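Customer escalation, tier 2.

The customer says the design service returned an amino acid string that "doesn't look like it belongs to this structure." They asked us to rerun it and document both sides in this ticket. The original structure tokens are below, unchanged.
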């Protein structure tokens, strides 16, 4: 049995979200957002961490890691668990992070997500963006939305991921799941062939560059429903990020394409529960309206906040409203609200001393 499997089993036992391995340190687990060393494990010297990492990595991936200094892939323990893996180098040598991928794809209801997210699953075309910092549960939420489509619609769904996280069974829909680096060279090349596959739904694991974003917009404008992720923390910043990727002479065209195709933005962050036993997802939700399209086209992104506030009856909400709602229900502490809120004044009475 690979050495790392024992630590993976420990992760699952303690319901940890991440396992951190750093040369020269003891392995560490992140449990409910807190990082803690596994005290009964030895310090990872050069030989031990190299053995741990190499024995679960295919030889071609290992060569790629040594050459490129980092790599992403997925690792499974049969029916026990599945993990997203990132290998990298740091000042003291090798390092790795393994993130738990839930073996069961949870539903929108089970995740206690806003029911309005089902509206995204019912769309026939356009662009839907899922945003938030690393580790905020974007992939889990997107998997729930895709699973809702799979359960209720007969559609051809293409996912382009690095690595493939959630493995979707074919229910009513048919899946083609492609891994960047293994099944396609890049997100962009996967999107190019996706246009020829006549996909009804396309999931782009990460929209990180000009080519990928422009191809995603093109696919959405040609009639596919495209889901993508970005590392932004609000709807207005998401629109800014999309436009800013384009060269200055193309930004007006990009605004027009985005105004015509954007169907919604869901920004997400995880908050520590008051009792310290888990975390809850808070969401900012923006839905497409005629006003949104005209504001994007005119470059008036600052007005997006007002659009969300005016659309509460339709299911839109600001992140700070979601955070305040959790505080009022006693789910999170005032201090957690202060730490995570954009408008600190709403929670300034709870500011740490």
């Amino acid at each position: 049995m690979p050495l790392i499997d024992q630590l993976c089993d420990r992760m699952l036992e303690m319901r940890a979200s991440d396992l951190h391995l750093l040369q020269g340190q003891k392995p560490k687990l992140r449990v409910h957002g807190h990082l803690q060393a596994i005290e009964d494990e030895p310090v990872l010297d050069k030989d031990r961490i190299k053995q741990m990492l190499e024995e679960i990595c295919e030889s071609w991936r290992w060569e790629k890691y040594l050459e490129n200094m980092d790599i992403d892939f997925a690792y499974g323990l049969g029916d026990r668990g599945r993990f997203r893996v990132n290998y990298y180098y740091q000042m003291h040598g090798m390092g790795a992070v393994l993130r738990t991928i839930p073996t069961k794809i949870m539903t929108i209801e089970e995740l206690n997500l806003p029911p309005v997210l089902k509206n995204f699953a019912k769309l026939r075309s356009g662009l839907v963006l899922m945003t938030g910092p690393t580790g905020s549960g974007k992939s889990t939420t997107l998997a729930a939305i895709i699973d809702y489509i799979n359960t209720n619609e007969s559609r051809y769904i293409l996912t382009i991921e690095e690595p493939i996280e959630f493995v979707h069974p074919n229910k009513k829909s048919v899946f083609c799941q492609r891994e960047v680096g293994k099944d396609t060279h890049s997100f962009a090349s996967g999107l190019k062939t996706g246009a020829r596959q006549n996909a009804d739904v396309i999931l782009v694991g990460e929209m990180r560059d000009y080519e990928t974003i422009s191809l995603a917009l093109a696919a959405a404008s040609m009639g596919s429903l495209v889901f993508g992720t970005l590392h932004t923390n609000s709807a207005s910043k998401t629109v800014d990020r999309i436009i800013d990727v384009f060269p200055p002479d193309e930004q007006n065209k990009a605004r027009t394409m985005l105004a015509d195709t954007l169907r919604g933005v869901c920004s997400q962050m995880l908050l520590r529960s008051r009792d310290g036993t888990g975390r809850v997802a808070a969401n900012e939700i923006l839905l497409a309206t005629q006003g949104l399209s005209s504001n994007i086209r005119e470059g008036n992104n600052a007005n997006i906040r007002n659009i969300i506030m005016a659309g509460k009856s339709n299911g839109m909400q600001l992140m700070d409203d979601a955070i305040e709602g959790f505080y009022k229900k006693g789910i999170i502490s005032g201090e957690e609200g202060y730490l995570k809120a954009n408008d600190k004044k709403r929670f300034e009475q709870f500011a740490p001393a």
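Tier 2 assessment: The sequence is consistent with the input. The chain has a mean pLDDT of 94. The CA atoms of residues 184 and 193 lie 9 Å apart. Sent an explanation to the customer and offered a walkthrough call.
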